[in-house]
Amino acid sequence: MSGTAALEYGFPSTHSTNAVSVAVYMLFMLHSPATNLNETARTFLKVASYCYASSIILGRLYCGMHGFADVIVGGALGAFLSTVQCVYGEMLDNLLYSGSSLTPLLIILFICFLVRIHPEPVDDCPCFDDSVAFAGVMIGVELGNWHYSTSGWAWNDPVPATVPYSLETLGWMKSIARVIFGVLTILAWREMMKPTLLRGLPPLFRVIERLGLNLPRRFFVLASEYEKVPTHLKDDNVVPSVSEFPSLITSMRHPRRRAISIGPQSAADVYETLAHRDKTRRESGGGGGGSGGGSSGVSWPKRDASTHASAETRSAEDMHSVSSAALSRVHSREKYTTAQDGVLYTPISEAADPMDALHAAQEVASERRKEAQADREMFSNLEKPRVRYDVEVVTKLIVYTGIALLAVEINPMLFETVGLGMS
Which residues are catalytic? Predict the structure, then answer.
């Protein structure tokens, strides 16, 4: 696995963590005395669980997205988390629901701390946004369940904070109405809160920045560097805005055929291409100097070594002209400089013709200019990442916390109020 892939896909493998945690949880449930399944069904589900976890882990290795250490530690972490949940989950839930407000407060602070120390991705990718959304949901679920379990609205069976519901009592019409009502309240919350926060938070962030208390992140523009945030940001892949529904319906009614993509499709792909080219050059071009022969078999006179150096200098300048912001990361991550690519030419000798050396140097410079042009084309064909604003992190955290609160506490209370509840 190349250094680029090792930086792009982190340690440990979260795919392995999720897959193993699901499989272990399923195995615990299948061995539970409360599971009423025949032996054939148990065996089938056990095999399916093992196959599911194994396919994900082997897939990450096969695609070169993770190394052995990544998937081993990721799988061990998933097994540990599921074991804790299955063995101690009931005790932890009782501790949360019967405790004081300090318990959910500590959980919220811990989740916020995890958001703050979330590793910064090498490239501008949605992985951090997804993590923030998930953290917001966890905050809302823990806070909502704690408060709902002590409100008098919830059932305590089979677990505390259970939403009262019975299909036999409510019927299909009320059940469907509850779903529609719940989805509409979530969409209304998102449509109201998101623009409000994007308008109200920047002035507060500027004050925090002047006090020196801001916590900047890579790829996010500080509040002091912009006046306002655009109202319609395409930053959410989980809960779309109401304005996006017409285009979603159109795409479902008239689905487009999947386009065939040729060449690098992301900055990570470009870095991988450059890294592979460097590796190929080092392996075929004679390595890091010495007396090994190159493919051209040309000998170089000492008096024309300056021509050789000037050609390398020009080629390096060409490379620096390629998408400076993007290639700066290439230089830092892949050490992408001609000096570290290794000497591409055979050692010089006294007997060589100076004109041969000059022509060879010109050919090398021409080749490097062609490579630089190809690099520029690769970066220009990539989809330009949108501007990301520092207030988006807190906005997403608050919005998804509210969505979870609506789902686990507020909407169940509203159901009882508007006649869609059990009472």
Answer: 15, 66
